Amino acid sequence: MITSSLTEISHPIKNEFEDFSARFKHAMKSNVGLVDLIARYIIRQKGKKIRPILVLLSAEVCGGISERTYRGAVLVEFLHTATLIHDDVVDNAEKRRGLWSVNALFKNKAAVLMGDYLLSRGLTLAVNGKDYDFLGVITNTVKRMAEGELLQIQKTRKLDMDEQTYFKIIKDKTASLLETCCQIGALSSSDNPEYIEAMRVYGESLGIAFQIKDDTLDYDGNYKLFGKKIGADIKEKKITLPLIYSLGNVSKDEVREIKRLIRNGKEQKNVERVIDFVKTHDGLNYALDTASQYAQKAKSAIKIFSESQSRLALESLVDFVINRKN
Amino acid sequence: MITSSLTEISHPIKNEFEDFSARFKHAMKSNVGLVDLIARYIIRQKGKKIRPILVLLSAEVCGGISERTYRGAVLVEFLHTATLIHDDVVDNAEKRRGLWSVNALFKNKAAVLMGDYLLSRGLTLAVNGKDYDFLGVITNTVKRMAEGELLQIQKTRKLDMDEQTYFKIIKDKTASLLETCCQIGALSSSDNPEYIEAMRVYGESLGIAFQIKDDTLDYDGNYKLFGKKIGADIKEKKITLPLIYSLGNVSKDEVREIKRLIRNGKEQKNVERVIDFVKTHDGLNYALDTASQYAQKAKSAIKIFSESQSRLALESLVDFVINRKN
User: Fold this and answer.
1) pLDDT tens for residues B91-141?
2) N or C: which end of chain A has fewer CB within 10 A?
3) A38 touches A115 (CB < 8 A)
4) Which residues of A touch B112 (CB under 8 A)?
5) Residue A119 in contact with residue A145, Cβ under 8 Å?
6) Which of 1.10.600.10, 1.20.120.1810, 1.10.287.80, 3.30.200.20 is the CATH number of B23-141?
7) What is the reported pTM?
8) Which residues of B are less than 8 Å from A127 in CB distance?
């Protein structure tokens, strides 16, 4: 299977994506010098823009891109940017997309406030446009994202994780926003509940596949471009699907031993032993299979739409997520 | 003039305040263990609850407290709590209201996420209640609060501040939320635009008076209970009204000398010289006079309402803000 690049995938909405970019840039402007400076810096950092692409494609398959679609795309990108900035503060991350993170360059204080600013700025766009349906979806998503991350912290501190909790966490912290993008795109161009539900299922399944794939890269990726190295999750004591599965297939003594290695994960040799353990006990294959099942679910969900360039793009996006190497 | 305590002031809405407290506690509950734990800790920290009191009193003078009023009161308290938690993260504050701050007890990561959670939780209440008028006011306020703080950071880094900028900052970072509380209270019980505007002006003026008074306490307060010591703002290089006024009345050489002392504000003797300078050049009296003018403006704004216990309470609240010693 040949995986297309994101630029190729978004080709059917190339012009609309440029319209979105111009609107996003415009909405980021501020009269406060420091806000404007940070905003222009964020625009320079670029990013893959998967979320606004999802909004645009979802609107397109459901009926067509409208003025409301653009507002939705700008809204989710504001929200996503806000959460990335807060994530970098809480993780003390120095780099983001190959450039300095906002917290590294402008300090934590400005970064936390800038995140709050972007979140509320996005919401004001929806309020001013009277997009109350978007607001209903998005405020609940922000809540789920924070709850998901807090649940992960709680479980991580105790090295206590099972598959059910893992799925709750990744649905809340990752899949919920992709789900929201697809719902907002659908809502902006259709009032057919079947269409909206189909796009919701597509977005959720894509998000789950995306996060599971991401978690397998911690065991099997190349050195991630501009990103983290293999084993970074283990060092942070994050127990993800490959490890959960492997731990479920060994004796209690072995579980205890692996958890001891994770607790002492600062030493590279311990991290490597955990990686070997997961590979030996089939955790990686299990996780990749599971990701593929959700990928399939995403593709099936959008079969109700007639074939079109946009539907094809949404299908290719699923392959892109599943086949990426970093 | 005898200043009443906040409990005395809020006496006319004593029962309604208890109803609010019960609803707030209930809305703070979460199925995620860590979220619930932090929420219960926040409730233990207590706080003066000026903002929900303002919502309740504003509704009462405008026509009467309704179900929507309670939602508004809970919403603003969620929002205020979220911003306090983020403030403590960015200031590295260890204490809040005499107890450990959330960041000190649960670490920065959980604190930033808890702030995001509370903000979105508050907004979902308004969305679910279809209080779109509240949402319009509140999302814009969150944006103004973040912008105001970012403008302050920008100006502080350069020791560059004039009276006009000072007023923009305190209106955005402090007065906007009190203004919003009064607007939301009014909106919840009346659709008379004159009433809503009167309460908006009251809230904004009260907020400005509150912040100016707060800034004078840095030069003239007692050791603030559970709070910061005299001169803390100077150490943080925050230039507020008393200092702005005094700097406007001396030669350029003296301005340069005072700014040099502020830049080297880590030494206590420099801080004390700045305090002396402000007192000698009448900055404290000027700021207190200005605060009194806004206090008067707040009281005048609500003269359009007939006399009642609630109007009296709003008047006493102005005196409380102006006369507090910490």
Assistant:
1) 888 888 788 989 989 988 899 999 999 999 999 999 999 999 999 999 999
2) N
3) no
4) 86, 89-90, 112
5) no
6) 1.10.600.10
7) 0.91
8) 132, 135-136, 139-140
